C-alpha cells in the first residue's frame, strides 16, 4: 500500500515533501531511506511546524534576531547554529531513523542557517512578526 503524504502545518517529519511512502515507513521509521529526502529542508520544516519546538525555541530566537534587525544591527546566520543543532537533536529523537548521522556536518548547519536567515529577513521586511 502506498500513501502520498502532503506537507502542511504541523505535519512534520520524514514525509513532509510529498514523497510517496510505504505504509511500513510510517509505522517503522527505521525502514525509511534517508538518501531519498532533503534533510535540510525537512529540518527547517520541523523547526517551523513542530508546535513545541517552534513555541519554545524557534520563535524566541527569531524574535531576538528581529530586535537586532530593528536596531539596525547586522545579522549573522551563524548565530542560528545552536538552534539548528538543538533542532537536529529534537528531530532525531522524534524520528528515530537509524541512518541519520549523530551530528550535522558544519556545511549543512551553515546552509540551514543561511536559508533560515534569508527567509526571516523577508519576513522582517514584510512585517510578519509585528504586532497588529
Helix-strand layout with pairing:
Layout: E1 2-4, E2 20-22, H1 23-27, H2 39-49, H3 51-70, H4 81-94, H5 106-125
Antiparallel strand pairs: 1-2
Helix pairs in contact: 2-3, 2-4, 2-5
Can you give a write-up of this model?
There is one protein chain. The protein is mostly helical and 132 residues long. It has a domain at 38-125. It has 5 helices and 2 strands. The chain has helices at 23-27, 39-49, 51-70, 81-94, 106-125, and strands at residues 2-4, 20-22. It has a two-stranded antiparallel sheet with strand order 1-2. Helix 2 packs across helix 3 (51-70) and helix 2 (39-49) packs across helix 5. The longest helix is centred in the middle third of the chain and has 20 residues, at 51-70. Residues 1-15 have low confidence and may be disordered.
Give me the strand/helix succession. Answer: EEHHHHH
Strands of the widest sheet, in order across it, are 1-2
Report the major sheet: 2 strands, antiparallel
- The fraction of residues in strands falls at under 5%
The whole-number mean of residue pLDDT values reads: 80
Q: What labels describe this entry?
A:
53% helix, two-stranded antiparallel sheet, disordered N terminus, single chain, 5% strand, 132 residues, mainly alpha, 2 strands
Can you give me a brief rundown of this structure?
This protein has 132 residues and is mainly alpha-helical.
